[in-house]
Amino acid sequence: MSMTERPEVSLLPDGGKYWTHEFDNFSVMVYVPVGDPRADVINFGFKAPYLLVFGDPERSIVNAVEFAERRGLADIARSHSSSVVYVIPKCEGGWDCAPETLYQEVVAESKIGQYYEDGYVINYKFRTKEFTGCSIRGAVFRIMLYGVGKAADYIARNCLKTLEGEYLWGPGEITPMAVTMEGLTVVPRPERHDIPVISVGNSGEVNEALRITCDQLLIRDEADYRADYEECWKRMKRWCGVLSREEDPEELGMAEEACITEVTTSPDNRGDDAGTARHRIGYLAYYPKDAEGPLPLVLVFHGGGDSAFHIAWVSGWWRVAMRNRFLLVCVENHLNSTATEMMEFIGQLKEKYNIDSRRIYASGFSMGGCKSWDLYQEYPEAFSALAPMDATFPVGQNVYGEPSPKEINRNHPVPVFYSAGEKTPLPEMPCQEIKCMERAQYLFQVNKVMKNYDLSFEDRENWPEKYWGVPGDRIEKIPDSSRDAVLTLHYYNSTDGICRTVFGGVDNQGHECREHTCEQAWQFMKNFVLPE
Questions:
Q1: CB 246: neighbour CB atoms within 10 A?
Q2: Nearest to 338 by CA among 366, 377, 308, 385
Q3: Rounded Cα–Cα distance for residues 297 and 31 (Å)
Q4: What are 399-421's pLDDT values in tens digits?
Q5: pLDDT tens digits, 277-329
Q6: 109-163 pLDDT, tens per residue?
Q7: Are 498 and 450 in contact (CB under 8 A)?
Q8: Helix pair 339-352, 367-378: axis angle to 10 deg
Q9: CA-CA distance, 293 to 403, in Å (whole number)?
Q10: Residues 6+ apart with CB under 8 A from 456
């Protein structure tokens, strides 16, 4: 059965932990070595490989720890503050009789999320914070699958092919990122050639079969999983089925820092730290290592349930920062922090980094977009420009769905680049819900846009512009060849002749944040600075 309660976690003598759970067709034993002490604030889950071991039915925790330490899996887990997950089939006959879909069943019980501890994710409903169960903590796009003997035979029969199942946001491809098979007694016939394979202690016949069918094959006499990971699989991922190697910011001249600071908790905080005197904020900072003069600051807020690493890498914001040489700060678990607390946080960043105080910007995706709107409503004078993405909420409300704690901005124009996917299932564009239309009206009023936004939501089928209601004074179409999409930008002039308002729609996009759009957001925002 699924994890309807938190697992009972046991402590090991060295400070490591472990827990077990019985699912319908398999059981798991999860070993959590001592990791980075920052991991309770910085969510390293997006970057961590999911170490999935199809194991021996008789393996005890003592044997599991010994195996992980000897093979180097424990070192990999420590370096990413993650875990080693052992999977044991419950059927008679063990791996010889395990169901073909067992791998998919394991993945369906796995996820990375905003709330986590001791190798598992805690699932809540966002608004009510109602507990809905737990999941094994693991990034399903970084699965490194290991098997010895009969378990390796199972992998050879069932996992060397395209596999569909529960991906990050619903159904999708869950093919393993890489596979290690040791002591095979069957000859594998991979159907998928781009699954990297490490063959350990196998026969010449097995290795020849793999050599013919695998694009990436390593043949080892003895196992050293840590060395193999460092040499071959570090920074690899299989994102939406496509195997790729991530760039190393340090090699490209970019600093990547995971940091923690502390701020005073504001009275309107409704996050996990509500009611405390002070609380910690984690963040990732990216900046050119050779920077000398003051840099612009761009704060970025991730989507609900995501992480700072997720928004930095999936959206490509860190690459935008590299190309354009600014300080990027991705805020961790920002729903635990308010707009007021962000003002104190920015002050701390100014003390730590050489920041151009006239060039302060912010952006965010989904719930992070809502946080960007909070800044527009509550602290407009603090920002040179803002780029909320893929999110609107009722004017006058904050990210917690409550009335803003202070009088909202009514007359201080702030340049805004707002973008959304034209195929999104969520209310992001004025044509979708009245609150989205009213958000656009509010922006037009405050930014003193020359064009009138006096529209009726009920008459949206007859709007002059299908998505935004009002066409821009200038319209630009910018292709994104990497995603076979087009970003259509509507530029709206204010009464003083300056364009401070841009609406952008991506024709081949649902609810997501893409690097192409982030780049265009920066190209717009960079034109604005705060007054002396």
A1: 12
A2: 377
A3: 40
A4: 999 999 999 999 999 999 999 99
A5: 999 999 999 999 999 989 999 999 999 889 999 999 999 999 999 999 999 99
A6: 999 999 999 999 999 887 678 899 999 999 999 999 999 999 999 999 999 999 9
A7: no
A8: 90
A9: 40
A10: none
Q: Write out the two tokens for 383.
A: 């920002």
Is the backbone of residue 222 left (phi > 0), alpha (psi -120 to 50) or beta?
Answer: beta
Amino acid identity at 332:
E
pLDDT tens-digit series, residues 364-382: 999 999 999 999 999 999 9
What pTM was estimated for this model as a whole? 0.94
If you count them, how many residues does the chain have? 532
Burial class (CB in 10 A: 0-12, 13-18, 19+), 462: exposed
Cα separations (Å) of 174 from 98, 104, 229? Answer: 19, 8, 20
Q: At what angle do helices 73-80 and 61-71 cross, to 10 degrees?
A: 80
Task: Please determine, for residue 1, whether its predicted confidence score (pLDDT) is greater than 70.
Answer: no
DSSP H or E run through 75: helix 73-80
* Encoded tokens for 472: 């821009």
Distance CA 100, CA 413 (A): 59
How much of the chain, in percent, has pLDDT values that exceed 90?
93
What contacts 501, CB < 8 A, 6 or more positions away?
Answer: 415, 416, 443, 444, 447, 449, 491, 492, 494
Question: Residue with structure tokens 């040179």?
Answer: 384
Q: Among candidates 197, 175, 147, 143, which has minimal Cα distance to 241?
A: 175
**3-class secondary-structure state, position 167:** coil
* Residue found by looking up tokens 């340049």 in the block: 415
Bridge partners (DSSP) of residue 149 are none
| Token reading at 443 | 């922006």
